[in-house]
């Protein structure tokens, strides 16, 4: 996180989770850390997060948190708990969602990967 020349880094881990859940949690925790409503840019290498919050969430809510799966009909939205939380947190801010290519030359994305890997390696939940 950056604001007026100040940088704050957050990281964490959870046991028995998925990459998509952790991508969502990263944005949620970043938004939770903001002390007031503001205009921000969220940079993510996760199209799942960016497209979910900018394109899909509106239909999910309109369809009682169901999504259409080709050949299978309606299915519950995966990670609904986190999508609901993220949706609520976005109401307080003006957000630009910017997708960046992961594992490339983007310094911020590479730093986030480093922080995520450090948190995963040092998690007390890792060796359970």
Structure description:
The protein is α+β, with helices and mostly antiparallel strands and 128 residues long. It has a domain at 53-101. It contains four helices and six strands, in the order E-E-H-E-H-E-E-H-E-H. The protein has helices at 19-32, 47-62, 80-90, 107-121, and strands at residues 2-3, 6-7, 39-44, 66-69, 73-76, 94-99. The strands form three sheets. The chain has a two-stranded antiparallel ribbon with strand order 1-2. Strands 3-6 form a two-stranded parallel ribbon. Strands 4-5 form a two-stranded antiparallel ribbon. The mean pLDDT is 90.
Q: How would you sum up the global shape?
A: globular
Computed over alpha carbons, the radius of gyration is 16 Å
How large is the share of residues in beta strands? 15-25%
| Number of E strands | 6
Q: In percent, how helical is the residue content?
A: 40-55%
Low-pLDDT sequence parts? none
Task: Note the total helix count.
Answer: 4
- Biggest sheet features: 2 strands, antiparallel
**Terminal CA distance:** 31 Å
Which structural class matches the secondary elements? alpha+beta
The whole-number mean of residue pLDDT values reads: 90
Order of neighbouring strands in the sheet with most strands: 1-2
Helix and strand run: EEHEHEEHEH
List the helices and strands and how they pair.
Elements lengths: L1 E2 L2 E2 L11 H14 L6 E6 L2 H16 L3 E4 L3 E4 L3 H11 L3 E6 L7 H15 L7
Parallel strand pairs: 3-6
Antiparallel strand pairs: 1-2, 4-5
Helix pairs in contact: 1-3
Keywords:
two-stranded antiparallel ribbon; 4 helices; alpha+beta; 128 residues; globular; two-stranded parallel sheet
């Amino acid at each position: 996180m950056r604001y007026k020349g100040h940088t704050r880094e957050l990281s964490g881990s959870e046991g028995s989770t998925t990459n998509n859940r952790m991508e969502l949690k990263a944005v949620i925790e970043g938004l939770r850390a903001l002390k007031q409503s503001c205009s921000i840019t969220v940079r993510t290498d996760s199209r799942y997060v960016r497209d979910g919050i900018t394109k899909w969430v509106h239909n999910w809510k309109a369809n009682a948190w169901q999504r259409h799966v080709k050949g299978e009909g309606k299915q519950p939205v995966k990670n609904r708990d986190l999508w609901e939380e993220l949706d609520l947190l976005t109401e307080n801010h003006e957000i630009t969602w910017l997708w960046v290519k992961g594992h490339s030359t983007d310094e911020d994305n590479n730093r986030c990967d480093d922080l995520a890997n450090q948190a995963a390696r040092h998690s007390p939940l890792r060796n359970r």
